[in-house]
Design goal:
- The protein is an alpha+beta fold.
- It has one domain: TusA-like domain (Translation Initiation Factor IF3, 2-Layer Sandwich).
- A 4-stranded mixed beta sheet has the order 1-2-4-3, covered by helices on one side.
- A hairpin with a 2-residue loop joins strand 3 and strand 4.
- The longest helix has 12 residues.
Amino acid sequence: MDRETAALRLDLKGLKCPLPALHTRRALERAAPGTVILVECTDPMAVIDIPHLVQQAGHALEAQDRDGAVIAFRIRKSG
């Protein structure tokens, strides 16, 4: 099983600040090192909160994208 297949997906669409960041933090705390977490949310503050959370915790923000109202993040937990 490759890491892409093993990616954890978080559908946080519709949640408002600070819930997307809190759910992302909890998922990172529980994930094994090297795990990829794909986060999708609609809260505009997530473009600030989630990259900040990832950087502060020492993880890698591998990608960030926007499709309409949906903001997607690809995060790899540090090992």
